[in-house]
Amino acid sequence: MIFYLLAIVLGFALLVWSADRFVDGAASTAKHLGMPSLLIGILIVGFGTSAPEMVVSAIAAYEGNPGLALGNAIGSNIVNIALILGITAIVAPIAVNSKIVKKEIPLLLLIVLFTGYLLLDNTLTLFEGVILLAGFFALVLWSVFAAFRSRGDSFEDQMDIELNEDIMSLKVGIMWLVFGLILLIASSRLLVWGAVGVANSFGVSDLIIGLTIVALGTSLPELAASVMAARKGEHDIAIGNVVGSNMFNLLAVIGIAVIIAPMNSIPLEVLQRDWTIMLLLTIALFVMAYGFKGRNGRINRVEGTILILCYAAYNTYLGMSLV
Predict the structure, then answer these.
(1) Which distant-in-sequence residues (6+ apart) come within 8 Å of 281 by Cβ?
(2) What positions does the domain Sodium/calcium exchanger membrane region occupy (predicted)?
(3) What is the pLDDT of residues 221-249, one digit of tens each?
(4) How many domains does the chain have?
């Protein structure tokens, strides 16, 4: 048991560090190759922070643990909205100004609803995995199109500042990109081994481990990125990072895992409990980010506290269901 726990702790530490190096290297390389700052923010920073979820879920699916793969993806989305945006809003209330981000949130809601539709029969087939992955590539194309049509957006201004703060050479950027990816894969393998070992030792399903421990650990890069951005006043980066990550998790992370290992018997509670919580949190994000009745889009400290309490209540319920 002690080796499994050490593997989880070490795996998390290396995962967070390698994901940060991977995203920094990718962003720097893209900047040197002339990619617009807005596109870097949407594709590399927004989606790149979900690299841990993708690698962990892919490895879990390949090794015959589909529950961990699916739990990691859905659980990470719950963590991103309830815990990460909650903590970020308490650190610094988040004002939503970017038109790009405001377009992405309704799109995220549609993706959540579509994922729920696919889960109605409690299976995810190879064909459905292909559809999800095709949806991700369509999202990338839309992001490119939106980036070139939205020059001057506040999200672009904030990304310019962020990218110019820590400039590295092209050679160093490529080095961190490659090394970060290698270490990301290795640390993910270590984490999956530890998580499955703990699940087997305690007699807990790999789905629950994926929804809780693994989802929290793989979401740490998003937490660090969003809190740091909010403290710098880069609010659109803080929330855009979470929205982009959540879309990536549902389309690419689940899609790749299902293509590797189709899921023929998904527990009913995934749709009734976990997907429903994810949907309600996404709706709450939509309401808070847009603002209604003359209220500007903003996630304040009170709302951030409510989000954290929701996360605590959800995990408490999961814990009680095991008793």
Answers:
(1) 77, 78, 81, 82, 307, 310
(2) 4-144, 174-317
(3) 778 778 877 777 777 777 888 888 899 99
(4) 1
